[in-house]
Q: What sequence folds into this?
């Protein structure tokens, strides 16, 4: 609490997490909802002016060699998550899986100028968000992993025309667990799949 450096990184969401973020915003009181939507809009304006919004829209075509640089470029814009208030998460109980899995153990003061030498993260043997995202990567997507930048979550949900296929809960759980087994044996966020660098590698 009180350290929001990680809340200015490019946060990748699974489609299910993006839809959940939209539901959280839609369930807010009108004044609160309007304020959060205003922050999303302000972030979009900044990203559009910098050219980053268009780059995020084209993420499935990112060359592998440029993925890390694009993550750094985003971080240097200093755009806070729309849910960040007083350097703390205002939707902590509803925060995305990616945020839940980012466990920093070094002093908060180190995040003022994050670097691999100053930030310590608790390693995760597998990534739940990555397994959830893979579960919705279907069709002719090829090697691309279906992920959505948190900052584009509301726009992405608004532009969706099809709901995901309904599955029994036990089938979804089985698919998630099988996916976890796979994520534990590969790079946490494979650059070749068009995914930003993992937050465990500070973007600075």
A:
């Amino acid at each position: 609490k009180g350290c929001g450096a990680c809340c200015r990184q490019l946060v990748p969401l699974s489609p299910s997490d993006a839809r959940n973020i939209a539901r959280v915003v839609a369930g807010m009181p009108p004044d609160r909802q309007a304020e959060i939507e205003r922050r999303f809009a302000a972030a979009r304006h900044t990203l559009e002016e910098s050219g980053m919004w268009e780059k995020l829209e084209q993420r499935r075509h990112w060359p592998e060699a440029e993925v890390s640089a694009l993550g750094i470029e985003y971080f240097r814009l200093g755009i806070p998550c729309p849910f960040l208030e007083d350097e703390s998460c205002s939707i902590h109980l509803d925060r995305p899986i990616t945020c839940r899995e980012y466990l920093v153990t070094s002093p908060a003061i180190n995040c003022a100028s994050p670097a691999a030498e100053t930030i310590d993260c608790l390693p995760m043997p597998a990534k739940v968000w990555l397994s959830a995202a893979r579960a919705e990567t279907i069709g002719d997507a090829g090697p691309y992993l279906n992920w959505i930048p948190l900052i584009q979550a509301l726009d992405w949900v608004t532009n969706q025309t099809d709901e995901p296929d309904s599955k029994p809960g036990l089938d979804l759980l089985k698919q998630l667990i099988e996916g976890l087994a796979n994520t534990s044996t590969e790079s946490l966020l494979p650059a070749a799949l068009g995914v930003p660098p993992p937050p465990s590698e500070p973007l600075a």
About this structure: Residues 185-195, 197-204 have pLDDT under 50 and may be disordered.
